[in-house]
Each structure stands twice: as structure tokens, then as C-alpha cells.
């Protein structure tokens, strides 16, 4: 590697050729403020807050977009730099609708902290004292307030580059520029998958999820109602961040305690339904494989997973002709909701109307999923309110609870029992790993041949990963699989999913089963997770998830005793008629226009 | 005294220079251009030979692109329009020679949208030259020398005259400047090494090829070789297009165009240029003096410099692409500040605030557009402060 010698603030550094000034400064712990830059996103160099002085250059240089050169002498502070940055913050603030005290991003707004950093005490320009652009409230899951937008384009890049959706673009030009949609239509009229990556990458209050906090408090307080809450696997590895704990701290038991203290009657685990999903989905896969291999029928392979509601809507919009490939299994949230108001209600001798079904998800798309008309029966919804991790954190704080100092409490039974296979649903590749642990054992009677059940090729953060598992020594009823090598693929971030599905469409992809997670990193990097979202946090959360799995005694979905009991007492067997009725769903081809 | 020159509009036999260029090695061709010290006529004044050399170096083995920037948009300039009216084939020949030098096989003329009326004549010229074997496939009978040249029209954005915004626009995206580096010579149109040259720059190429690099240096000054076209407008008896060698003083230019006796100010380089007052009239127009892309606007004593300034700032506020903070927000705040004077609310504090804003705009903007917005503001305010304060 080519090495360069440069100085920053008079101190000599060696750097890699091709690195930018900002990359060097970050690595060396030299503070340079940024706004439009984000480690997940392509460099734009447009907010200009990161300008630094480079000797010999007439103008200041944006640290984010300026590559280092041999002998560069860089100054990251000084009068010229400080004045320019202060002016930039002042310009942004003057055009920003500043209702900080009632803004959802109060105290977590990047513009607000820059104003503080540069000590702004007055604005010399005419301020935006009211909303001059109406908010777009049309999305089922988030709010767009252009009056607070600083045009950093992080949302545009997240939507286009990470997600391959391209719902947002800048419209008009100059000081009339706004972030908008095609023909400036409301979000509800255009192709949006509700993933919330725009929200998760927004530095200000211009984008935030639609809040269900007040509705949930009201439900908790409503007399005569039973409020049951389910928490997704990704929450336990991220919620602690909102309370100052280092990323990757597991807070499972403390979270349950907090929820109990807040007045939730039953605290359950979405992981119960994740194990159930594996039973249903693995059975569905084997049926499809048998159809293709034994009955020589046309079955839709590869089969794609259906846990991630952003991905489902993505496929409905972009690949409606491939919907038969999508597993008919509902997501764990929705399987859980359906069972809560049937199976559990019967056991508890409650009628569905007496139950409030609440979920905590790392996800904004789950709000939309819960509201899909097919997700309920007899006029009631399976999930009444879907909260994000951030909303739950806000509620815990409102209840005056310090999460960090709580004892552990286990989840309630039976919908709180789960295995490690369900825990790893939170990470990209986790659903596939869980499915293989079960499918392999179902057909061979032996454990999947990976050390400690860890299917390492499926782990990590590469955009697309694959694995092949040869079947041999099968149980007699699965002898038709003898000699077959199961080929599986994992993709996360719908931009990667798009590439994979284009290959499926072209018939060039050699795979039987594909896991797709909408968000980069999977659910642990979901649009509803604590902010700011960074690659390091995703790594730490994944570590916590895999640690939690490794520490559990039960790590295979088919070993979940509560799930076995559910089949014995209620559903019969996987993919039974009753299971289909409650746990499977249909999709809506939407197209792009 | 600077000489009046007649190069750009003089007729040349089509293909003559190209044939001479084809007899040379591309490296020798680049050396000739370097030797001529020709600098870009669009305003920035980068050495044309060095630009070609950089593109040739990074093109080695790759497809390269050669673009003619005909997005003449600076307020007060109209010389490229005339060149394209009268000397189309010379400009195209300059491009073909350039393509040969850098190894480009693809090219574009990016024509200002408002010059749409030139489209038929340019297309006819392209067809004619192709028929003559001076463009397209197997140029001048050389089997391996192909240059596919397309005419594309802009859509009215001033910022698309900035070369990277122009390239973005050619790629069907919003015309917004890119980060530099990478420069277009390394990563231009669709990632190809790309040269972007102004119309006027290209019109000089065939002459330099025919007469040699040293010959070109006979005109102009040491740092600014050759001649320059000026688009002159405003308070003078003979507005129009003039060609002078570099180093001409403002005073001489004013005399040549029969400017009004009571000339108060001259705006050199259009809205993004500099305002000269009587004290400056003995200064030379050259890269080392007052640089210009060619726009010269003369103002007599009856003109309000406040209105001139307001007009320029309104133009910038309208034309800023809006991507970077200092330019997008700065242009509208600069206009807000200037309007205060009209409303009787402006004072010297306003000027101080605006100068501070101007400093940030020129130091921190992403591209040359935002960086040069403050030029006219600063020069007009420094020379006509009282006029602004009493507007």
C-alpha cells in the first residue's frame, strides 16, 4: 500500500494513499464536524461544515471529499475555518424551522449540537419562524417536515444507494430546493417501502416515525383490558444505547422488568413466533423442493423469506411477477399477533376485544405491516400498535425508569419461550442459519454440520453471502433429497436484494432459498433502532446477538417446547390447514406506478 | 498598445490543420499546444496542453471523451454564439485534433439551450464534415481513427457551464458540480477520462497546429499568450465582439469600443467577474491582471451601481444549483441583505455582515460558482460603497 506523509495541526501522520482528510482525522481522533457525510453513504461534499485549511490552496477544502496528497499540511481549526463553519451553521439555522423544545429530535439533533459547538448566540438573517411548507403526513409510518430539512441529502442516498428504492430526490434548485418525491406527490402515492432508513439517516427533525406512544399509554391505562407486548430479537441488543450503555450491551431481562413496571400485563417474546416461523417456513421449503424434485411439478424456487415487511413491499412494487417465490409465512410479529388473539386468548379465556396487542420492533415498516387489512380477523387487528425501539426508550424514560439499574425478569409463558435460533433473526443471515439448523436436522436426524451450529459463511456484513449444504444419509421419508446440495443465499439492504432478484428473474441464479432483510445489517440495523446509526453499532449489536445465541441451551427452533406444545394442542402440524389460516398470508402486486 | 487580432473569425481550409495534426505523434501534438501556452478561454484559464496531457495519461488503453463547452451563460457574453455561427467547422476541427491528441473516440458539443436555433446548422456541419471524411469513422482515411461527435442541448442552467455539472447533465442527471478531485481528465463522462474545452479555446487549436506553438506566443503577454475575444455591451457607441491580444488595458478597450466619456465602471467577466472603476482603467486584462471569460459591460454615470449589484445577486440566487450550503443559503441571504438598502434598513453593519458571508461563500463553496459569487459584490461595494449605502 502506498503511504503518504502529511501533517494535521502541525503533527506528522502517515496515511494510506486514497484516504480522505476526514478518514485520517477520524482514525486519529481529530474532531472534524460533519453533517452530510455518513459512513453508510456515498460522499457528497455539500454541507461544507467539514472544511479545513490546506496549505497552498486558495479555498478551504471539504475534509470528506478531499483525498490526501503527499506533503499536505492540514489545519482543522483556526480563525478562517472556525468562521466559515460558524457562518454555515448560522445559514442552516436561519432557514430551519426551529421549534426545538417540541421537536422529536430535541437533544439528538445534529444541527442543534453544531449550533452549540460553534456557540451561536444570534442569527443575523431573517429566520424561518413558522412552517412555510406543509408537512407530508401521508406515509403510514413517518412524517416529512421540509421546514427542518437542511438538504444534506442523506435520506436520498439511503433510499437510493442502500435500498435501491429512489423514492426521494431534490426538486427545484437554488434556495427553492426541497427534498421531495416524483412530481412532488405525497409519499403515500409513490413507491416507498416504509423501511425508515431515510428516518434513521436524517440528522434533524425533518424525518421521524409516526409515534404510537400516547396510544399505547392509553391502552395500558384502559380498565378491563389486558395489554400484552411482544419484543423483537433486535431490541435487546440495542435498547441499552438509549440509556448510555455501550452498543452491544444485552438488556433482555432488564427490558422485561421495565415493561412490567410500566404496566404491561404480559411481556412476551417475538422470538417464540420466530421459532414458529422456522417450523412453517422450513416445511414450506421442503414441500416446494419435493414438488420440484419428486413430483416434477413447476414450483417457485428459489423461495424467498418473508419476515421483513419492507422487503415484502419492495417485492410487491419492483418484482410483482416474482411474488409466488415469496414464502407465504407471515412475519414473526404477525404470527405472534394472530396466536395472541386466538390460541392464547382461548387459553386465558379472554375474547380478542379484551386484548391489546402491542409490539416493539426495530422497524418502521412493522407499523404498516400491522395495519395491512389481511393481518387480522373478524374486525380486529392482530397487532394493535407497533412501537419502534426509540419509542420504547422514550416510554421507559417517561415512566422514570433507569433501565441500566434493573434486575432481570424472564419473559412470560408460553409465548415468551424461545431458542437461540430465534435470537439470531435480528442479524442478516440469521433467519437462514436458523432455518438450516432445523431443516437439516428434520431431514437427516443429525445436527447441521457446522462447528457449534454456527453457520459462519452466512454471518457478517457482505451485501450478498451464500452457502451450500449437501444432503446425505437422509431419513427414509426424505430419501428423495439424497445427493441434493441445498444452495442458499443471503442479502441485506434492498439494493442488494434488487441485484439478487434481477438474477432470479433472469433465471441465472442457482439457489433454492434466499433470505432477504430490508435494512443493512438486518433488523439490528433497522429504521426504528437507536440513533445515530453507524456500521460500528451494527457490528456491536450483531456480536451481542450471536453471544446471546451461543449462551443458550436451546438453539434450534424445533427444540422449542412451547412451539411443540402449540402444534400438539392447537395447530396440528406445520403447514396444517389451521396453520395456514392463522400463520400464512397473501401478497398484493403493486407495480411501480 | 495591444494589437487588434483577426484569428478566430478568419477562414481556414477545413481539414488542413487536421491533416497536419495526423502527421504528428499525439505526444508531439500535445507538446505543440503546451508550447503555445494556450489557456482555457472559458474563464478559469487552465493550460489546455496540460489538460490534454493529463487526459491522455489516464486514458492509456481506456475510452476517452472530448467535450466542447458551448454552454455560454455568463451574463454579457455572446462570443461563442458568433463563433458557432461563423466558424463551426473550425471548432469541430479543434475537437477532432484534441480527440486525436488525447485518444478520445467519443465527443459532445454541449450547446446552451437558448442557442437551439443553431442546432440545424451545427448538425448540417457535422454531416458535411463526416462526408468529407473529417469526422466519424476512419477520419482522413486512417482506419483506426474514429471520433463520434454528438450535439446535446442544455436546458437553461447557468451552472452547467461548470465542467463537472455539464458532465452530470450529459449523463442525464441534475446539473450539479461534482467534487474535484477526481478531475474530469481522470474521471469524467461515464467515468471516462474527459477533456472539456470552451468553444473559443478550440477555435485557436487549428491555427496553433498550422503555425506552431511559438508563433502563438507572439501575441499577448508572457503569462497570457495569444488573443482573446471580448463581448462588449453597455454604454458605448460600438458594442459587439472584439478580438485583442492579451494585455490590453481597460482604457484602450474603452477607446476602441467608443465608450461614453463619462464611463463610471466596467464589469469584467460578467456577474461572476470584477467591477473596475476609473482607478483601474490602466490595468491590463490578462490572467495575471484582470481575468475574464470575455464579458465586458460598460456603465456610464447614469447607472446605479446598486441596481447593477442587485441584478447580479438576483441572477445568482436564481441560478445556484442549491446543493452546497454556502452558495444555496448564501446567495439568498446576500440578496436579502442587499434588499435591505432599498428598504432603507441597510447600514454599514449590513455591509460588514455581507462581507463576512462573502468570505465564507468564496472559501467554502463546493464549486467555482459559489466561490465567485462574491467577486462582483466585493468589488462593487469597495468602489461604490456610498452608492450602496444611499440606495
Would you mind describing this structure in some detail?
The complex is a heterodimer of chains A (593) and B (391). By secondary structure, chain A is α/β, with parallel strands linked by helices. Among the domains of chain A are: 75 residues, Ubiquitin-like (UB roll) (Roll); 119 residues, Alpha-Beta Plaits; 175 residues, Fe-only Hydrogenase (Larger Subunit), Chain L, domain 3 (3-Layer(aba) Sandwich). In chain A, 34% of the residues lie in helices and 13% in strands. Chain A contains 18 helices and 19 strands. In chain A, the strands form 6 sheets. In chain A, strands 2-1-5-3-4 form a 5-stranded mixed beta sheet, sandwiched between helices. A 4-stranded parallel beta sheet of chain A has the order 11-10-13-16, with helices on both faces. In chain A, helix 15 links the parallel strand 18 and strand 19. In chain A, helix 8 crosses helix 10 and helix 8 packs across helix 14. Chain A starts with a strand and ends in a 10-residue tail after the last helix. The mean pLDDT of chain A is 96. The two termini of chain B are 38 Å apart. Chain B has 3 domains: 201 residues, 3-Layer(aba) Sandwich (Rossmann fold), CATH 3.40.50; 74 residues, Ubiquitin-like (UB roll), CATH 3.10.20; 85 residues, NADH-ubiquinone oxidoreductase 51kDa subunit, iron-sulphur binding domain (de novo design (two linked rop proteins)), CATH 1.20.1440.230. The longest helix of chain B has 18 residues. Chain B is built from 15 helices and 9 strands. Chain B has 391 residues and is α/β, with parallel strands linked by helices. Classes of the chains: A alpha/beta (593), B alpha/beta (391). At the A-B interface, helix 2 of A face helix 11, helix 12 and helix 13 of B.
Structural class of chain A: alpha/beta
What best-fitting shape of chain A do the alpha-carbon axes yield? globular
Report helical residue fraction of chain B: 40-55%
**Unreliable residue runs of chain B:** none
CATH secondary-structure class of the domain at 284-307 and 317-327 and 418-521 and 548-583 in chain A: Alpha Beta
**Which consecutive residue ranges of chain A, at least 5 long each, have pLDDT under 50?**
none
Largest sheet of chain B: 5 strands, mixed
Alpha plus pi helix count of chain A: 18
Helical content of chain A (DSSP H or I, runs of 4+): 25-40%
Give the second-level CATH assignment, the architecture of the largest domain in chain B.
3-Layer(aba) Sandwich
* Beta-strand percent range of chain B: 5-15%
Individual helix count of chain B: 15
Overall pLDDT level of chain A: 96
Provide the CATH topology of the largest domain in chain B.
Rossmann fold
Largest interface: A-B, 36 and 32 residues
